[in-house]
TrEMBL record:
The gene is napB. It is found in: Periplasm. Heme c 2 binds at H110, C131, C134, H135. The lineage of its organism: Bacteria, Pseudomonadati, Campylobacterota, Epsilonproteobacteria, Campylobacterales. One of its GO terms (cellular component) is periplasmic space. This is Periplasmic nitrate reductase, electron transfer subunit. InterPro entries: Multihaem_cyt_sf (IPR036280), NapB (IPR005591). It comes from the Bacteria.
Length: 173
């Protein structure tokens, strides 16, 4: 009986000591920027340069992975913000205009309403209207962590084209 009381007492003491020693993780220890999350004054932003090329002057960029939103290869000066009254992206990338101006047209998935499960015709879907929600301008930002990911594409055309609407239900029964 004395042994049981001793073991329970020792376990309780060990538990209490270990709880007292663990102070948790500070906000400076988590995240990629290693700064206090409650105070933005100590955050040092990296010097990032975006492409200075205008629309139509830049080269098409390979996607990061199949059906990834492509990066925007040109500068966005004067094109933002996107509002419900104005979306400068669509002045070139709307499917009715793109070919005439030499731009890449928004893919079929942008002209499809996934909530109603039907095409939107010639009007871009409301959920795809805010382009910069998925697409970002290319910059010379250095990676914050190492990356050895190598994309594998089903075919070469998918490096610069989306087939998302065609494969959306792949593997779903």
């Amino acid at each position: 009986m004395k042994n049981k009381i001793f073991l329970v007492s020792a376990a309780a003491a060990l538990f209490l000591v270990s709880c007292a020693v663990n102070n948790g993780v500070s906000s400076e220890q988590i995240g990629l920027r290693k700064a206090n999350l409650n105070n933005e004054n100590s955050v040092v932003l990296s010097d990032i340069n975006y492409s200075g090329l205008g629309a139509g002057e830049s080269a098409l960029l390979e996607r990061s992975f199949e059906n990834a939103p492509p990066l925007i290869p040109h500068n966005l000066d004067g094109m933002l913000p996107i509002t419900k009254e104005s979306n400068s992206c669509l002045t070139c990338h709307d499917k009715a205009i793109a070919q005439d101006v030499g731009a890449i047209a928004a893919p079929a998935s942008h002209y499809y309403d996934f909530w109603k499960n039907k095409p939107t015709g010639d009007v871009i879907s409301e959920i795809r209207y805010n382009c910069t929600q998925c697409h970002v301008a290319q910059s010379d930002a250095k990676p914050l962590v190492g990356n050895t990911f190598k994309a594998e594409f089903k075919n070469e055309t998918l490096k610069s084209k989306s087939n998302l609407l065609d494969v959306m239900n792949e593997g779903v029964k």
